[in-house]
Amino acid sequence: MDFYTGKVLRIDLTAGTTRVEDLDADYARLYVGGKGLLFRYLWDEVAPGLDPLSPESPLILAPGVFAGTAVATCSRLGVGFKSPQTGTIMDTYVGGSFGAEMRFAGYDLIIVTGAAPAPTVINIRDDVVELRDAAKYWGMTTGDLEAALREDLGVQTKILSMGPAGETMIPWACISVDHFHKAGRGGGGAAMGSKNLKAIAVRGTGSISVGDAREFLADLHRMHGKYFLAPAHIWAWEEGTPVLVDVMNNGGTLPTYNFTTSGTDLAKGLNSESFLKIRQRKRACYQCVMACRNFHSVDGVEGEGPEYETIAICGPNCGIGDIAALVKYNAECDELGLDTVTTGVVTGLAMDLTERGVHDFGLRFGDIDAYLEVPKLIAARKGIGAELCEGSRAVATRYGEPGNAMQVKDLELPGYDARATFGMSLAYATSDRGGCHMRSYPAMDEITTGTLPPDSLEGKALYNIDGQNISSVRWTGVFCDFWFPSANEIAQVWRHLYRRKVADEEVLLVGERIWNLGRLFNVREGFTPADDSIPEFMLTRPLKGGVAAGKVITVERFKAALGEYYKLRGWDEQGVPSEAKLEDLGVDVRL
Amino acid sequence: MSHVLISNKRCTGCHMCELACSAWHEGAFRPSVARLRVEVDPNAGRSRGYTCLQAACKKCAAACPTGAITESGGVVRVDAALCDGCADRPDGPACVAACPTKVIALYPETHKAFKCDLCDGEPQCVLFCQNPEVAAVTLKEEQPHRMRVEAD
């Protein structure tokens, strides 16, 4: 089967056994790869109501169907599980080299279940899978662990790991690949921690066949030049995501002082110009000719990142405008294996509650010393960390301000305040994994291009639906958002996958099919329209500063737009996909 | 007379050169048998590339006991029919031992030596280092008496 290895590696850590089975051909036909296969297999593997930290809960690794080929950006690896943070279906993506390498080792999917009796590293060398004692690695931070594993297993070994925050099962502990690349959201690190799984190491020497490889190469070279290395995307090379700092701050959406204002001077020292001054060199993910990553060095801290979301949430949102402090905080989170977005939102909330005298966390906006201690305290569940590790909703609710918890479905919000980009309120509320900007992204046209009004929800239901459908199909590749391929561009690549002409509609159909499958999963887990909301403060209280100051979304407008969204989706008033819709889309499961 | 060279300073570590190389020669993506190699240290954010210097080196050809490796037109090639993989040599293949950058190896399935042949004129590794701002993999004209792997 060209493009697929056709094999699934199953590892049961409780029993200490591994086995290889065939990839389900029907699932591959309907759901292609990456996100699609993650969702379809999770539907089968996760019994409704399953405790995400129980041994039975699966952790699935699914590279896209183009991982390990020369399709630019498609090295991204999908990691899927029922989230210990949100309780929803969770697909979180990471660049770097692991996804391609596991395909060279021969696997389209790796499904890990069970819990090892003692700390374990899974070591994969093509068809040889070994469970190694990981006592010597336990407690190691990301960089130390990677160095030790490469020393022990060879420099070409690719590593996927959790940090100390995964060991303590912080609900938003992340997964790291190649040290600085993160499957950041939803608590994959906690899932690994619950399995006593410190890392998976892989080395693959096999091949991915693609039919006529020379013809494929020639066509890819054409497409990269025409569509990817094009003026619309070259910002990723020149600046990378820090380019968004000024754009979003000027647009009044960069969250500041715990989502109460925007457009402050704090962002000025954290903009792209500032990061260019500390940039050492550009780095790339595996199989990507763009190289969006920036390797920075400041005050003795070296490494890749931070990216825009981290800059916004861990910077101005915590009252921080000092680039060295921000880079250090980011590095702390990276080494401990913490999602920077949730960590930053929780830090900002604690600062807000302290400043207003609601509760004293000993943490004030802009207090760099106290700020830099937070990631360690959270990872260790010590001091204020013992409380903050419960997440923003639990903390805000305890102090009587549930509407001040900047999260949706317990996933904390990234770097866009919806009061300055109304469409993002629907994006957050309807995302399959909670507060996330990676499913649909109205900020693109409400702020960056300025082609849509930012203070209106008119037409935004459809905008979000289109975005969610195409992002779902992009992540079968797994294409990166920094290419942002259109349905037509994906269809041109799929011509090689299916050896026939592919219509744009066929591409979009797969995306909509996947999105509806994810919805069914969340409905099965008990999520209702009440969960499809955004923080009350964001709906009802205006921002104090920035160009969107004074604007209010209002509960009524939001609810009307959500109703419109369900209707356009072909879902009933409870947000459940109709039988006719599922039939049309060819979704092969039912509640 | 030319060879492929990788600038360690410019390389971003994307491995696209290895992918294109293997697809061209193997008919499938298999970077473990690519004719050039990039090693990446993610912690340091550094790459190190290894390529064949062709006629400027020729150490493999000099070491080959069966005459399977020869240079013609500036390209050093292996004649698979003459290569026996140094099956009888206790220290392993002579060409591999002689190669300063370890870009000649025995093919895993056939146990015969294989190496860079510049893709018969248009090296795919150079073509797929496609971002003009990166251009880390380039075709260098040979410079006599300056045979060395570029280092930082």
Mean pLDDT of chain A: 98
What assembly state would you assign to the polypeptide chains in this entry? heterodimer
Shape of chain B: globular
Cα gyration radius of chain B (Å): 15 Å
Helical content of chain A (DSSP H or I, runs of 4+):
25-40%
Number of domains of chain A: 3
Second rung of CATH, namely the architecture of the largest domain in chain A? 4-Layer Sandwich
Side-by-side strand order of the widest sheet of chain B:
1-9
By CATH reckoning, the class of the largest domain in chain A would read Alpha Beta
Give the DSSP E fraction of chain A (strand runs of 2 or more residues): 5-15%
The number of helical elements of chain A comes to: 24
Percent strand of chain B equals: 15-25%
Provide the helix percentage of chain B: 10-25%
Distance between the terminal alpha carbons of chain B, to the nearest Å?
24 Å
Could you give the count of β-strands of chain B? 9
Spans of chain A of at least 5 consecutive residues whose pLDDT stays below 50 are: none
Task: Provide the CATH topology of the largest domain in chain B.
Answer: Alpha-Beta Plaits
Question: How would you describe this structure to a colleague?
Answer:
- The complex is a heterodimer of chains A (591) and B (152).
- With 591 residues, chain A is an alpha+beta fold.
- Chain A has three domains: 7-203, Aldehyde Ferredoxin Oxidoreductase,  A, domain 1; 240-400, Aldehyde Ferredoxin Oxidoreductase Protein, subunit A, domain 2 (Orthogonal Bundle); 401-591, Aldehyde Ferredoxin Oxidoreductase Protein, subunit A, domain 3.
- In chain A, 39% of the residues lie in helices and 14% in strands.
- Chain A has a six-stranded mixed β-sheet with strand order 2-1-6-3-4-5, sandwiched between helices. Chain A has a six-stranded mixed β-sheet with strand order 8-7-12-9-10-11.
- The longest helix of chain A has 21 residues, at 504-524.
- Chain B has 152 residues and is of the alpha+beta class.
- In chain B, a hairpin with a 4-residue loop joins strand 3 and strand 4.
- Chain B is globular.
- Residues 146-152 of chain B have low confidence and may be disordered.
- Classes of the chains: A alpha+beta (591), B alpha+beta (152).
- Chain A binds chain B through residues 68-70, 72, 96-97, 104, 143, 146-147, 155-156, 178-180, 204-210, 212-214, 216-217, 221, 224-225, 229, 237, 280-291, 293, 295, 302-304, and chain B through 9, 12-16, 19-20, 22-24, 26-33, 39-43, 45, 108, 124, 127-134.
- Strand 13 (208-209) of chain A pairs antiparallel with strand 2 of chain B.
